[in-house]
């Protein structure tokens, strides 16, 4: 039972880390992006309301980055530091896959 004005424990991130970024996807689901767990990681995980799911890794692993969502609901990973500790100006956008219809569907026009 949810209690108003309180915190509820949710499932832990599959990849524990710090100095990560967080934002939401176009459907409002939280994303945990990049970070450091002793190594710089490009891990991206999405919470669907009950469990975390892995998404494709960032092309440029980094920590201390920022994240936001663009006007079309696509997550952006911005800046940060690479595995050498160098500041990077890299900006990457995650493009959500578009579901395709099964190939055996047909339509009749009237």
Notes on the protein architecture:
The chain has a four-stranded antiparallel beta sheet, with no helix packed on it. The mean pLDDT is 91. The radius of gyration is 17 Å and the shape is globular. It has strands spanning 21-24, 30-36, 40-47, 52-55, 66-69, 75-78, 91-93. By secondary structure, it is mainly β. The termini are far apart.
List descriptors.
globular, 7 strands, single chain, mainly beta, 0% helix, 31% strand, 3-stranded antiparallel sheet, 110 residues
How does the major sheet shape up? 4 strands, antiparallel
**Helical content class:** under 10%
**Average predicted local confidence, pLDDT:** 91
Instruction: Give unreliable regions as ranges.
Output: none
Number of helices: 0
Order of helices and strands: EEEEEEE
Radius of gyration: 17 Å
> Looking at the structure, what is the overall shape?
globular
Beta-strand segment tally: 7
Q: Specify the structural class.
A: mainly beta
Instruction: State the separation between the terminal residues, measured CA to CA.
Output: 51 Å
Largest sheet strand order: 1-2-3-4
**Hey, roughly how much beta strand do the residues contain?**
25-35%
């Amino acid at each position: 039972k949810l209690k108003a004005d309180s915190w509820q424990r949710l499932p832990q991130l599959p990849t524990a880390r710090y100095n990560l970024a967080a934002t939401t996807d176009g459907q409002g689901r939280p994303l945990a992006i990049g970070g450091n767990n002793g190594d710089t990681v490009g891990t991206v995980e999405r919470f669907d309301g009950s469990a975390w799911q892995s998404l494709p890794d960032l092309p440029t692993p980094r920590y201390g980055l920022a994240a936001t969502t663009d006007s079309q609901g696509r997550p952006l990973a911005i800046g940060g530091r690479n595995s050498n500790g160098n500041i990077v100006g890299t900006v990457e956008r995650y493009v959500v896959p578009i579901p395709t219809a099964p190939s055996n569907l047909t339509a009749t026009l009237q």
